[in-house]
Specification:
Elements lengths: L1 E6 L5 H5 L2 H8 L4 E6 L12 E2 L9 E2 L1 H12 L7 E11 L2 H8 L3 E6 L7 H6 L2 E5 L9 H12 L34 E2 L2 E2 L9 H19 L6 H5 L24
Parallel strand pairs: 1-2, 1-6, 5-6, 5-7
Antiparallel strand pairs: 3-4, 8-9
Helix pairs in contact: 4-6
Bound molecules: S-adenosylmethionine.
C-alpha cells in the first residue's frame, strides 16, 4: 500500500517513519510512504503558500493555487492516482470502521492543513474525503496523517505477525467490542494476581473468560458499542465465535 503525504513540514515525519512496525513494514516493502512539501508547488518566488483571509479576521489560509496543483501532480506520479484525504476537524470522525474502509485503497493521498486551514475551493475542486481525528483542534494535519497511517497499516496483510493479530483488537469487526483484559508476568504483583483461569491451560475456559470479560468491560465503559440484544443477553447462544473470542459453550451463563 502506498501513502503520499502533502505537508508544509515533511521533517516532522522522519522520527516517526524510522520506528517499530512502520519502519519494518517500509523495509519489507509492504508499504511505501512518500513525503511532498506543498511549498514546492507555490507559484510565489518566496515559496509562500498562505495568505490573509478575505473579509478579514485572524490567521492565514492555505492557498488553492498551491494545494490543488500539488495534489494533482502527486496523484500523477503513480498509478492508481489514489484516494485523496483532507485532514480537517470538520471531517468524518476517524474510527476503526473508517480505518477499515481506508485500508481497502491501494493508495492514499493525505493532505495536511496548517494555520487557519484550507481555502474552501480546495474542498470543492478535489474529490476528497475529509477526515477528523476528533472534536478538538490540532495545529496541523501531520499528527492526524500519522494516526491514519498508523491505524491503516495494522490492516495491511503481513504488517502484523500472527502473534500481533488485529482481529481481537478493540473496535474490530465483527463485534467491535473492547478487548478483554490482558496479563503477563509476573503472576502476582503487589498482591494483585492474574486470574487463575488464564493459567489453567484450558483453552475453552480461557476463551469463555475472554469473551465474558470483553463483553463486561464494553458494557461498563462503552455501552454504545453494544447492540440492544447484546446489552440484555449476557452470552447469546449460537453467537458466532471469532479467533481468540469464541462464544461460551451452550448452557453456560455469564459469571458475575
Ligand atoms: C488550526 S487547524 C484549523 C482549524 C480550522 N480553523 C477550523 O476551525 O476548522 C489547522 C489544520 O490542522 C489540522 N487539524 C486540526 N484539527 C484536526 C482534527 N481534529 N483532525 C484532523 N486534522 C486536524 C487540519 O489539517 C487543519 O487544516
Amino acid at each position: 500500500m502506498r501513502f503520499d503525504v502533502l505537508t508544509l513540514f515533511p521533517d516532522i515525519f522522519s522520527g516517526y517513519l524510522g520506528q517499530s512496525l512502520l519502519a519494518k513494514a517500509l523495509e519489507r516493502g509492504l508499504i511505501e510512504v512518500h513525503l511532498h512539501d506543498i511549498r514546492d508547488w507555490s507559484p510565489d518566488k518566496h515559496r509562500k503558500v498562505d495568505d490573509r483571509p478575505y473579509g478579514g479576521g485572524p490567521g492565514m489560509v492555505l492557498r488553492v493555487d498551491c494545494v490543488v496543483p500539488c495534489v494533482e501532480a502527486v496523484q500523477a506520479m503513480a498509478d492508481p492516482p489514489g484516494h485523496v484525504v483532507l485532514l480537517t476537524p470538520q471531517g468524518r470522525r476517524l474510527d476503526q470502521a473508517v480505518v477499515e474502509q481506508l485500508a481497502r485503497h491501494r493508495r492514499l493521498v493525505l493532505v495536511c492543513g496548517r494555520y487557519e486551514g484550507f481555502d474552501e475551493r480546495i474542498r470543492q475542486l478535489l474529490e476528497a474525503e475529509e477526515i477528523s481525528l476528533g472534536d478538538f483542534v490540532l495545529n496541523g494535519g501531520e499528527v492526524a496523517a500519522m494516526a491514519v497511517i498508523d491505524a491503516v497499516i495494522r490492516l495491511v496483510p503481513g504488517v502484523l505477525g500472527d502473534e500481533d493479530s488485529s482481529e481481537s483488537d478493540s473496535f474490530s469487526a465483527p463485534r467491535r467490542w473492547l478487548e478483554c483484559a490482558q496479563y503477563t508476568r509476573p503472576r502476582v504483583y503487589r498482591g494483585l494476581e492474574v486470574p487463575a483461569v488464564l493459567l489453567s491451560g484450558n483453552h475453552e475456559e480461557i476463551a469463555r473468560w475472554r469473551y465474558e470479560d470483553s463483553r463486561r468491560r464494553t458494557l461498563q465503559r462503552r455501552p454504545d458499542l453494544l447492540g440492544n440484544e447484546e446489552r440484555l443477553e449476557p452470552c447469546p447462544q449460537g453467537d458466532s465465535p471469532r479467533p481468540g473470542h469464541p462464544a461460551p459453550p451452550r448452557g453456560q451463563g455469564e459469571s458475575t
